[in-house]
Amino acid sequence: MDSFQFLYGYLFGYGLHHVDFNNPNRPRTPKFSAHFYYNIIKDNGFPLPEDEKMIYGEFKKDFIWSSATASYQIEGAWREDGKGLSIWDKFTHTPGKISEHDTGDVACNSYNRMEDDIAALKKVKVSHYRFSISWPRILPDGTTKYINQAGLNYYKKLVDSLIAANINPQVTLYHWDLPQALQDVGGWENETIIQRFRDYADVLFQNLGPKVKLWITFNEPFIITVLGHVQGAHAPGFNDRPDTLPYIVGHNIIRSHAEAWHVYNDKYRASQGGLVSITVNSDWAEPRNPYKQEDYEAARNVVEFYLGWWVHPIFNGDYSPLVKKSVLEQSLAGGLTKSRLPEFTPEEIKRINGTYDYFGLNHYCSVLAFPVDFGTTQHFEADRGVVVISDRTWLETGSVWLRMTPFGLRRLLKFIKDEYRNPPIIITENGVSENGPVDLNDVHRKYYYEQYINQVLKAYLLDNVNIIGYTAWSLLDNLEWAVGYTERFGLFYVNRSDPDLPRTPKASVSFYSSIISCNGFPDPTTGPHELLINVFMFSTEPINNVNFLGMKLSAEDAATGFNATFALLIIAVTGAICLSIGFFLVKKRPKKNKKTDNVELDKRP
């Protein structure tokens, strides 16, 4: 326990138990370390916890295996073919906003290197590819007054190329690159954007819908709202606006989503047969102290403000009771007469409720939560009333906010099942970063995917969660928003010092593709699985397209074509030689004597 430390008196506490020296009774309170040490003694060491043990089995037959990117992060071509400016074009060109002064002006140049991206996807063996549409590339000023056909043609070609490669397109309408022209008139604060987004969605459903069966309206509205309009770390970069701003922005995003869903449902679903939903991001939260009820409540608050803010209206018609209560109480504490959280009208509740076809989830890590009293502060964080930290024993990654916590994904999936009536769930992003020197043998990413995907399998097999798909973030090392190119999430390394920006597979490519090929994790006790032979073998050859007989093919396809052509050439030459030899032998055969022939004929009966 904490005690008198000689020269230092009671300044430092070394004990497993805290002693309150201000109380004459000197009460002892166990610290977390006391419980931890108790468990070590009880277990006589460090046995592997049940939720960390591997499980073996397969996902359902039609399971979706995907990898993802976003338009601003990979496309480049920021002023090509009539594209308008986006808020991220402006934000990245503002000094001091992005690490290393990086921009998406060129990014991975996917706008001009589509074939390389398709070749990368084929190497991973995904069944789907999640990409987003650049709103200003289609509608330069954000409205339908002018539709940029060149931009539309790019996405049509991408969809056609994916289908030709037997890869299904999975399209996100909005992944943060709002047309700057719309931001100039208020952006997501101005409710006129609801109609603008509806019109934009209509254009895409009409032009791409016949070939696209999976749609996402918004990617991570929490990030759009909090990082873009509270913290200012993302475009448009607001951190000094009214404390009602995040809730107004969120309110308009939810209504915009509902309108887009209804456009599809009313005009296109019958003929196109696709699915439309929103993708939300959420950490899982554990109590900092598992022996404090208030820490459990804080952990619940974290998840509610990730999900209850967005998912609850879409699945149930209105904000979750906990979110409404938290914002109201903090608003009243600040002297306001009503909540800063807007209310939906009865008509809006009816229109928003049920606007989903599946549950889109982005998840990366978990946190530890504990409550904090923010007093009368009027701020999003004060409404939530929670501070989050990471356990220092959790494995670090290339991002300060991301610690490896595989267990949290299964628990979050189970939470969604229980809270929202077990909807079909597609994990639309999950991945891990690195920074510093490039190492193509990315063992930490292989470990991350193995552990996290195995937790998904547990949720499916043991918890009966209706999980129907998994998406690895990301396909390529790309512009990671405010940190630029300093953090890399990609399965493929993109060499930015080479003007051709070649895509080079990391070790995680073959590992992830093997999981895809096996549709899960084969039981090793049944012997080596034929599809896992090459799990730890990977090629570091960059992917480049080459011209072959007038066609632009990947190096792999060109090599196949060359070998086939060469084989046909050998067959043709061999045939020609055989014919020549045969002709030569016939010519050299000695002619028979005519007299002899006559005599022989005379002897015939």
UniProtKB/TrEMBL annotation:
Question: Which InterPro entries does the record match to this protein?
Answer: GH, GH_1_N_CS, Glyco_hydro_1, Glyco_hydro_1_AS
SUPFAM superfamilies under this entry? (Trans)glycosidases
Catalytic site residues?
Answer: E429 (nucleophile)
Q: Which domain of life is it from?
A: Eukaryota
Q: Which keywords belong to this entry?
A: Glycoprotein, Glycosidase, Hydrolase, Membrane, Transmembrane, Transmembrane helix
One Pfam family recorded for the sequence: Glyco_hydro_1
Which GO BP annotation is one of this protein's?
Answer: carbohydrate metabolic process
Transmembrane stretches, by residue range?
Answer: 566-586
* Subunit annotation: Homodimer.
Protein name, per record? Lactase-phlorizin hydrolase-like
Which species does this protein come from? Poecilia latipinna (sailfin molly)
Organism taxonomic ancestry = Eukaryota, Metazoa, Chordata, Craniata, Vertebrata
